[in-house]
Amino acid sequence: MAFDYEKYIRPGKLPHIWCPGCGHGIVLKGLIRAMDSLNLKKEETAIVSGIGCASRLPGYVDCCTLHTAHGRAAAFATGVKMARPEMNVILVGGDGDGTAIGGNHFIHACRRNIDMTYVIMNNYIYGMTGGQFSPTTPHMMKASTTPYGNPDPSFDIAKLAIGAGATFVARGTAFNASQIDKLIAEGIQHKGMSVIEILDDCPTTYGRRNKYKSVIEMMNRLKEVAVPVKAAEKMTAEQLQGKILTGVLFKADRPEYCAEYQKVIERAKGGAK
Ligand SMILES: Cc1ncc(C[n+]2csc(CCOP(=O)(O)OP(=O)(O)O)c2C)c(N)n1
Ligand code: SF4
């Protein structure tokens, strides 16, 4: 039987805003399948976002949702989790929202290892505002603000998250849709800060400008560059040149923030110094 997405969708919010071929819809469906596979209760699940095309995602999902200010998803989500630690807190947003204006909130949520799951849709661009370059725009690729090519080196979101202290870090692509739900579900089950980067595409402001002829061509690029971590172990440095690792990239055990905070509350109640 076909999967019933409708039970998780707010019909009144449709049609969605995304362009044909935008990868964000693939991520929305992956997130819904992940929620369903874990049997998450709608009233115990909060999806929090900032601003951008990717950040419109929570509006379509029938659970507790917060659409906040640009870059501030991690700050609002931290508040939700601290006030209601029993809730499943999922953040969603774009590379611009999460690693440019929201970069500071992102690294500190990772540092605290607070039990939340951050799904970052990396389409290399500020899609909503017309395609300005972001911290993940690849070197020398074009954006509206770098019409002759982007001279900046780009962030590796997964490495940034690991370096900042996240204890579950994974990467998938919009091409491999069936992997997205599994990575998100594993991230939600992990106790601590989980970051799942999904490479997806903005054909409208990035694809056209960089001379991709079609969405299919962009999808094929994702297919070609992605290498599962297990397969990468058997490849040489030369073979891995220009490839992007996918799957679970990092997993560690470290004290979780809400639990640590609770200990401080208990100590304060007991009058301990
Ligand atoms: C404080 C503030 N600055 C700038 C903006 C304009 N703005 C809206 S969305 C956006 C970029 C979103 O890019 P990204 O997070 O990568 O998501 P995408 O649209 O590509 O999915 C910007 C700069 C804003 N809304 N608020
Ligand atoms: S502008 Fe780009 S990111 Fe925004 S909906 Fe269109 S394709 Fe998606």
Question: What does the model show?
Answer:
- This protein has one domain (20-269): 3-Layer(aba) Sandwich (Rossmann fold), CATH 3.40.50.
- Helix content is 37%, strand content 18%.
- The protein has 11 helices and 10 strands.
- The protein is globular, with a radius of gyration of 19 Å.
- 46% of the residues are buried.
- The model has no long low-confidence stretch (mean pLDDT 97).
- The site of thiamine diphosphate has 18 residues, from strand 3, helix 3 and strand 5.
Defining key terms:
binds thiamine diphosphate; 273 residues; Rossmann fold; alpha/beta; eight-stranded mixed β-sheet; two-stranded antiparallel ribbon; binds iron/sulfur cluster
